[in-house]
Design goal:
- The chain is mostly helical and about 325 residues long.
- The protein starts with a helix and ends with a helix.
Length: about 325
């Protein structure tokens, strides 16, 4: 079917959380343009949608700055999670929340949880204090239900530690959530672990976050040849996911966000492939399907349309004319 932002709007309105619905209205009010850093007041052209979205976002954050309670739908516990904080940072960026108290608390949490070697790892209490979920049926045909928290929230896993350090360093740099020396310490840790066979990335998430971390590097914390090799492997890893048709639409949106953040033009092969996958991946109900489960579909639709907008591929006026906004 041909892509329709009007149908996507109806899907998010019907199936999204309060956060997802408010964020959708904010993105639409900006015509898909990136949100400027928060300056208080009524958020300018976004009206009350941005205020509402930030208020909804804050309900997923603890006083210590850590994230929880479903900001990642796979984790509904109330203990501050380092893994869930990656999701919190992604939302902060979408909403332009750099100057908010939410961002300030996140900064405090990240600096407190960063290890002396520059890495971040999950808190063992996340798995220990969260009760197991009651048995339930599969919610769709994509995969069996996962435990809450899922297995990758385990502390002490080299792969999880590398993913967390890569992702949080990239967001900390982009959103001013850590001083340069802390970001560079994480960057050096990632570069060291990247070439260690015991730590080498075994999941695609690490590839596009490494592309963002090293694609935007403007200092000498890591030798140029090392950074170039990480970038080469990252782009190759993403390309393999696309060629083998393993890139979920939720992830395709994340890759497209990364490509825009590092300045890839629409003609770049990764950009073109992700755009095509998203534009052709809309279901008849208006949403993007995700093998991560139905609870991820509204976010996949929101982030997917926002990412496509960065490249001028979403005509938001169609949704307004159809009365879908």
């Amino acid at each position: 079917m041909a892509f329709s932002v009007a149908q996507a709007s109806v899907f998010v309105a019907k199936n999204g959380t309060s956060l997802e619905r408010a964020a959708w209205r904010m993105v639409a009010s900006l015509g898909g343009a990136p949100a400027a850093p928060w300056a208080g007041g009524d958020a300018g052209p976004t009206g009350g949608a941005r205020v509402e979205a930030l208020e909804a976002l804050s309900r997923h954050q603890n006083p210590d700055g850590g994230w929880c309670r479903g900001i990642d739908p796979d984790y509904t516990g109330s203990t501050s999670s380092v893994c869930a904080t990656v999701a919190g940072c992604r939302w902060l960026e979408l909403l332009g929340g750099t100057g908010t108290e939410i961002a300030a608390r996140t900064r405090t949490f990240l600096l407190a949880r960063q290890r002396p070697d520059g890495a971040w790892d999950e808190d063992p209490d996340v798995a220990r204090l969260t009760p197991p979920p009651p048995p339930k049926e599969r919610d769709d045909e994509s995969r069996p239900p996962l435990p809450d928290p899922p297995p990758w929230y385990a502390s002490g896993s080299p792969a999880t530690r590398l993913w967390l350090t890569t992702s949080l360093a990239a967001y900390a740099e982009a959103l001013d959530l850590a001083p340069p020396d802390r970001v560079n310490a994480a960057r050096v840790r990632v570069a060291r672990d990247w070439f260690d066979s015991a730590h080498f990335p075994n999941g695609p998430l690490i590839f596009w976050m490494a592309l963002r971390l090293f694609g935007s590097e403007d200092d000498s914390a890591v030798e140029g040849e090392v950074a170039d090799e990480i970038l080469r492997r990252s782009i190759g890893g993403i390309r393999n996911e696309i060629e083998w048709e393993r890139l979920d639409l939720f992830d395709a949106a994340w890759v497209l966000e990364t490509c825009h953040a590092v300045g890839f033009p629409i003609s770049h092969p990764l950009v073109a492939s992700c755009c095509e996958r998203l534009l052709l991946g809309q279901e008849f109900d208006g949403g993007f399907v995700s093998l991560y489960g139905v609870k991820h579909r509204a976010a996949a639709t929101l982030f997917g349309c926002a990412a496509l907008s960065r490249y001028g591929l979403v005509k938001w006026e169609e949704a307004r004319e159809a009365g879908a906004l």
